[in-house]
Write a structure and sequence with these properties.
The radius of gyration is 17 Å and the shape is globular. By secondary structure, the chain is mostly helical. Strand 1, helix 3 and strand 2 form a beta-alpha-beta unit. It has helices spanning about 1-5, 20-35, 65-95, 115-135, 160-170; strands at about 40-45, 95-105, 140-145. It has a three-stranded parallel sheet with strand order 1-2-3, with helices on both faces. Helix content is about 45%, strand content about 10%. The protein is built from five helices and three strands; from the N terminus they run H-H-E-H-E-H-E-H. Helix 2 (about 20-35) packs parallel to helix 3.
Length: about 180
C-alpha cells in the first residue's frame, strides 16, 4: 500500500508491528515518530483478515479463559498500548484524534462471536470512558462499531463511504460513538 501511495506522490511508509506483541508495537511507534514527528490521528482497527495463530472465534457456550484472553489482548491491550504511544503528546499539544473500530458485536451481542464480542465490548467501554476523560483537552476519542463486511454490497459498505465517516468524526469531533 505504501508503494501504491508513493506512486501517487504521497509520502508513505509501512511500519510492521504485531498488536499482540506490545514491544513491537512500541518500537513501530518510535520509528513512526522518528520519521514523521508527532502523530495527529490514531485509527485502531483490529480486524484479522487472515487466520491469526491463537485467535479463534467461539460461541458463548464454548468461551474459556484460554480462547478469550487472546481476544482481549488483540482488541483491548493492543489499543491501550497504541494509545499510550500518542496520548501524552496529543494532550500536551491540546490536539489529536483517536478513533477505534470494532465489529457490531461490541454493541449488539452475536452468538457466533461469543469471545470476540466481550473483548470488543471492553474496547468500546474503554473508548467511551476515554472520550469523557479527554473532554476539554483538545483530544477527541470515538468508537465506530462497523456492522458490515467492508466492500460486501450496498453503499454503506464501500471503503469511500466508511472513509468519509471517519473524516467526519475527525473534523466534527462531537460524538463518542457512531
Amino acid at each position: 500500500l505504501a508503494a501504491q501511495l508513493r506512486e501517487l506522490d504521497i509520502d508513505a511508509a509501512g511500519f510492521a508491528a504485531d498488536i499482540m506483541d506490545r514491544p513491537s508495537l512500541v518500537d513501530a511507534f518510535d520509528h513512526i515518530t522518528q520519521r514523521y514527528g508527532a502523530i495527529d490521528v490514531l485509527e485502531y482497527s483490529p480486524a484479522p483478515h487472515n487466520p491469526v495463530p491463537g485467535i479463534t472465534m467461539t460461541g458463548p457456550r464454548e468461551v474459556s479463559v484460554d480462547n478469550l484472553q487472546p481476544q482481549i489482548d488483540f482488541y483491548l491491550h493492543g489499543a491501550v498500548t497504541a494509545t499510550q504511544q500518542v496520548l501524552a503528546a496529543m494532550v500536551d499539544r491540546g490536539a489529536g484524534t483517536l478513533l477505534y473500530t470494532t465489529g457490531g458485536s461490541s454493541v449488539n451481542p452475536n452468538p457466533m462471536m461469543g469471545n470476540v464480542g466481550p473483548a470488543a465490548a471492553a474496547l468500546r467501554n474503554w473508548v467511551l470512558s476515554l472520550h469523557q476523560a479527554l473532554a476539554g483537552t483538545g483530544v477527541y476519542a470515538a468508537h465506530v462499531p462497523l456492522n458490515v463486511w467492508i466492500g460486501s454490497g450496498g453503499p454503506d459498505t464501500q471503503p469511500d463511504t466508511i472513509a468519509e465517516l471517519y473524516w467526519t468524526l475527525h473534523t466534527k469531533r462531537a460524538e463518542a460513538e457512531h
